[in-house]
Amino acid sequence: MELHITCIPGDGIGPEIVKEARKVLERAADKYGHKMIFKDVLMGGASIDAHGVPLTKETVAEAKAADAVLMGSIGGDAATSPWYRLSPELRPEAGLLALRKSLKLFANLRPAVLYDELADACPLREEISRAGFDMIIVRELTGGLYFGERKTFQENGVRKAIDTLTYDENEIRRIAVKGFDIARKRRKKVTSVDKANVLDSSRLWRSVVEEVAKGYPDVTLEHMLVDNCAMQLVKNPAQFDVILTENMFGDILSDEASMVTGSIGMLASASLNDTKFGLYEPSHGSAPDIAGMDIANPIATVLSAAMMLRYSFDLDREAQAIEKAVKLTLSEGYRTADIMSEGMTKVGCSRMGDLLAEHIV
Ligand code: NAD
What we know:
Layout: E1 2-10, H1 14-32, E2 35-40, H2 45-51, H3 57-65, E3 68-73, H4 92-102, E4 107-114, H5 126-131, E5 133-140, E6 150-155, E7 158-163, H6 169-184, E8 189-194, H7 200-213, E9 220-225, H8 226-235, E10 242-245, H9 247-261, E11 268-272, E12 278-282, H10 299-311, H11 316-331, E13 334-335, E14 345-346, H12 349-358
Helix pairs in contact: 1-10, 1-12, 6-7, 8-9, 10-11, 11-12
The chain binds nicotinamide-adenine-dinucleotide.
């Protein structure tokens, strides 16, 4: 298979971690007989330095022309970087928001996996962390409270603010389809999270999700109220496979789920549109405090690249080979500084990339 991938190395540690992810992807491509064609483009701070704007038309065109986009991360230190003395629409993050919009990305995927080898980093009680967990949060990204009409005004001398939470059935259906499709590639269980005891939008959400579920008789569907879900994530995270939810609930729950893994350098993410196209990036930022030091953990980006193979190219076997390489490398005791513990072997970013590539068997 020939895969066209646009790479956005970005800022800070971005170029270092993307380099390692490419190394691992190339090894997987060699092993399984695929051809990967990479094209690097600028975005964020790097684009501001080169072109004066965080996103150019050329970058958008290159992203659209590819089968998928692999990104490092963008941005700098807000206190010291000159990028943050520019007006908000010219800052690095504005480029990412505009790119996501022009690619029509509406489904955000955030896996939260607790590796046995890193269970010590998990802040939960030992009997809970010992059970491990492996879930993915599928969050609607373009509707709901963050995009509804809003206003702030005065009424009888009292300040008042209104935000509106709107979803139509088509928006709910397309994200539900993504959630069920993803469950089919995993343990075939969807937990749809809402607040149907209070909100009309949640009652519509629940009924549309049930309609979609009829097309997936092999996938188990359960509903959970968002307050209960927030509790269950720390009480019994092992119960979850796919959590399907709307924008704001997903924003909060995906941060909660990732924090219970305890390892920021391990968290992958993806944003998809209604084709197979996706933008794949680690959940963490550009870590300007450690940029250029060859100590960043590339695993989140490598796991994002594995997601790209699975969700944009349906190369599940190749994705699994990368995920296995991560587990194997960890089980042999190799650690970057952020996940280092006593008795383990500390390696830098580049060496970790080499090890991951070598462990693709
Ligand atoms: P951050 O995630 O970059 O860093 C937080 C802490 O985690 C730092 O101590 C950093 O060294 C560490 N860290 C992060 N990733 C790591 C890795 N792979 N290996 C080892 N350690 C790692 O968050 P921040 O400092 O709040 O943000 C820095 C910049 O990143 C800001 O400009 C912010 O806007 C941007 N940012 C970008 C994205 C994105 O591109 N999608 C996401 C979040 C933040």
